[in-house]
TrEMBL record:
<comment type="similarity">
    <text>Belongs to the HAD-like hydrolase superfamily. CbbY/CbbZ/Gph/YieH family.</text>
</comment>
<dbReference type="Pfam" id="PF13419">
    <property type="entry name" value="HAD_2"/>
</dbReference>
<dbReference type="InterPro" id="IPR023214">
    <property type="entry name" value="HAD_sf"/>
</dbReference>
<dbReference type="InterPro" id="IPR006439">
    <property type="entry name" value="HAD-SF_hydro_IA"/>
</dbReference>
<dbReference type="InterPro" id="IPR036412">
    <property type="entry name" value="HAD-like_sf"/>
</dbReference>
<keyword id="KW-0413">Isomerase</keyword>
<dbReference type="InterPro" id="IPR010976">
    <property type="entry name" value="B-phosphoglucomutase_hydrolase"/>
</dbReference>
<dbReference type="InterPro" id="IPR010972">
    <property type="entry name" value="Beta-PGM"/>
</dbReference>
<protein>
    <submittedName>
        <fullName>Beta-phosphoglucomutase</fullName>
        <ecNumber>5.4.2.6</ecNumber>
    </submittedName>
</protein>
<dbReference type="InterPro" id="IPR023198">
    <property type="entry name" value="PGP-like_dom2"/>
</dbReference>
<dbReference type="GO" id="GO:0008801">
    <property type="term" value="F:beta-phosphoglucomutase activity"/>
</dbReference>
<dbReference type="InterPro" id="IPR022444">
    <property type="entry name" value="Cofactor-bd_rpt"/>
</dbReference>
<dbReference type="InterPro" id="IPR041492">
    <property type="entry name" value="HAD_2"/>
</dbReference>
């Protein structure tokens, strides 16, 4: 075949969007303010560093470099506490079935996540070894909407960017896929309809025929 798939993690493979939100909210609360679910939309897909920068801007807070790093570590400890409680029931509907179809069709797939806990989460869920390549926030300099994560994933899969299809739930992620020159598929977020090449409500809607169309007969 001549195509490959790249999955975002949080909000695509696994139901961690609420957990990321909770951890970031605790940080804002520690600083004495709060932010809304709507504001959280703008954090989705961004790196830990970029999320903290955004939250500090909302709270009008300035930190030294040392304290900035300290608060990134605190966020991560909040988040990891949630993650270690998680089991395979957190895998989102349609994910495992879609992976089965891809394997049957010999279509390789990778993870392309901004989260530095990407590998930990896949291992915790018992699905790490199913991926042909895994790129997470530890492997790159630039977070989404920069295309670096997806370009590295394509490179590790051995496919040209134009032969890759990306599943994303975040605006920054769809923008990263578009900038990488890949086919972008927005999932579970009406706000992605403008920017993504295709949209679905969830992964159970993605059919074998849809994948075959894009991945088996690519030129
Ligand atoms: C992205 C999430 O996948 O990872 C963001 O969409 C999150 O919400 C970001 O902040 C960074 O995650 P981590 O685990 O490296 O702090
Ligand atoms: Mg996501």
């Amino acid at each position: 075949n001549s195509g490959a798939v790249i999955f975002d993690l949080d909000g695509i493979v696994v139901d961690t969007t609420g957990l990321q939100f909770l951890a970031w909210r605790k940080i804002a609360n520690d600083f004495g303010f709060d932010f809304s679910k709507d504001q959280n939309e703008g954090l989705k897909g961004l790196s830990r560093e970029d999320c903290l920068k955004q939250i500090l801007a909302w709270g009008n807070i300035k930190l030294s470099v040392k304290d900035f790093h300290k608060w990134m570590d605190i966020k991560n400890s909040y988040y990891l506490n949630y993650i270690y409680e998680m089991d395979a029931s957190a895998i989102l509907p349609g994910t495992l079935e879609l992976m089965d179809v891809l394997q049957e069709e010999n279509i390789p797939f990778a993870l392309g996540s901004a989260s530095k806990s990407g590998k930990i989460v896949l291992k915790q869920l018992g699905i790490y070894s199913r991926f042909d390549a895994v790129v997470d926030g530890n492997d790159v300099k630039n977070g989404k909407p920069d295309p670096e994560i997806f370009l590295l994933a394509a490179n590790r899969l051995g496919f040209a960017p134009s032969a890759c299809v990306v599943f994303e739930d975040a605006v920054a992620g769809v923008q990263a896929a578009n900038r990488a020159g890949m086919i972008s598929i927005g999932v579970g977020n009406k706000g992605l309809q403008k920017e993504a090449d295709f949209t679905f409500n969830n992964l159970t809607e993605v059919t074998r025929e849809f994948l075959q169309n894009f991945l088996l007969f690519q030129s």
